[in-house]
Every structure is written in C-alpha cells, then in structure tokens.
Amino acid sequence: NLQEEANVLIFPDLTSGNIAYKLLSKLGNATAIGPILMGVRQPVNLLQYATSTVEDIVNMTAITVLEAQQKAGQSPS
C-alpha cells in the first residue's frame, strides 16, 4: 500500500502505459505532459506526431528549455 501519492507509474509495455496515461488524464481532468526522457546527456523529449496539440508542444518545449537551463547552470527566468 502506498503511504503517499504516486508520482511515477511503471507499466509492462507501451500499450498498457498509453491506455493508463490517457485514462488517468481524462478521468482526473488533468494536463498530462510526457513522455519525459531521463538520464540522457542533453535535454531530449518526444512528442507524439499524430496526436500532439499546440498545448502539448508548448508544454514540452517549456520543460525542455528548463532542463537545458538547469544543465547549463542558469536559473529559469
């Protein structure tokens, strides 16, 4: 049993992850941003080509810029 809210969800395959991601986003009426890649040398993030909205592109761009600034030792403005 979880003692606090989960901030990471792990799934056995991409299809399961996508189904849960979309379901939780809709049921929770939440803005979901991702996938976010961790552990790479340079900030890199992916957009889903066919289903990305303008909001998805803006959100992912903002996250990537923040990651790049953090890596460069700059504070976000």
List SSEs in N-to-C order. HH
**Cα-based radius of gyration, to the nearest Å:** 14 Å
Mean pLDDT: 83
Largest sheet: none
Helix fraction bin: 40-55%
Which stretches of 5+ consecutive residues score pLDDT under 50? Answer: none
- Return the domain count: 1
Task: Measure the end-to-end span.
Answer: 39 Å
Write up this protein:
The chain has one domain (14-72). It is built from two helices and no strands. The chain has helices at 14-27, 54-72. It starts with 13 loop residues before the first helix and ends in a 5-residue tail after the last helix.
Question: Quick summary of this structure?
Answer:
With 77 residues, the protein is an all-alpha fold. It is built from 2 helices and no strands.
List keywords for this structure.
single chain; 77 residues; mainly alpha; 43% helix
Task: Map the helices and strands.
Elements: H1 14-27, H2 54-72
